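queue> holo job accepted (DP6)
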Amino acid sequence: PGHGVTAVAHPNIALIKYWGKRDERLMIPYVDSLSMTLDIFPTTTTVRLAPGAPADSLTLDGSPAEGEVRRRVVGFLDLLRERSGRSEPAVVDTHNSVPTGAGLASSASGFAALALAGAAAYGLDPDRTALSRLARRGSASASRSIFGGFAVCHAGRGTGAAADLGSYAEPVPVPDFDPALVIAVVDAGAKAVSSRAAMRRTVETSPLYRAWATSGKTDLAEMRVALRRGDLDAVGEIAERNALGMHATMLTARPAVRYLSPATVAVLDGVLRLRSDGVPAYATMDAGPNVKVLCHPADADRVAEAVRGAAPGCSVFTARRGPGARLTGE
Ligand code: DP6
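queue> job finished
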């Protein structure tokens, strides 16, 4: 058996959210998004080609991958085989460093690492833009984890091949802005509705979806300015309103998709109290009840303490900006 190719990638948290696909097969988002790649919880993935094997063999944290996860990874490997003109099955071994049950398992770090290791294993040599486009086919947020620091993912225009070509992520250079992100895991359980299904339902039925997508354009333009200025208050305010707006679209879907729990709201109240005490802290939430709080690194301990007080029993992690995906010499 040949040597495997190993890649590491980190999760990212969107400050301007992606929610909704205009092409589900090509995984093209409706809206542009912007994120910070984190320095914690990397995913490490090794891909080895297995000529003559009957099928792909996938292991996730030591156990065989099954169901939806297996289906998505095999679909992604099929895309690599189509691109490379090769047909060998692969052996894929993935390790997430997220503490088990932290409710933070990320398809972003997973598909970024798989895209990088898989492309190399199948002899493809994409540049970073092409790699990001490729990772998008696994999970749209994965396109951003190819890059370290801050990255913007373009939704692109048009349909079909043109849309595919136009939808990729690229770095947003902000050398001097290095905030902390305090992550409050208030519920580690699996989500009630997958983000994929929830997005579809939101786009199809929420009367607020279009309005949120439109205001997201202003949010993104203002976010770029705020980042360039290193203005934490402006970055935080824009990120918070963009995330609350995304959840408003879900709450107005039919039937409603509600990821926010009483503990989420308690942490949001804690964040407001911090602000009224003069501590700049701003919240963002994804497709789940956990809250990520943006703050100055010097305030991170105080923010973590406030979050623990607001939601007793939650787990708290502090992240900073992290690196892009990279191959490791095996
Ligand atoms: C709320 O990238 O996980 O975290 O493209 O279907 O794999 P798929 O969805 P995914 O959705 C992320 C949604 C979000 C916001 C964001 O990260 O931009």
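queue> The CA atoms of residues 182 and 318 lie 4 Å apart.
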